Amino acid sequence: MKKLIKRKDGTTRVCALPSGVSLTKQNFKDECNVHNILEKHKRVGVMKVNKGYENPMYDDFTQVPDYQEAQNIIIKAEEQFDSLPATIREKFQNDPSLFLEFCTNENNLDQMIELGLRAPISPSKDENSSSKGKTSQSDVNESTETNKSDSAKDAN
Question: How buried is residue 84: exposed, middle or buried, by Cβ count under 10 Å (0-12/13-18/19+)?
Answer without folding.
Answer: buried
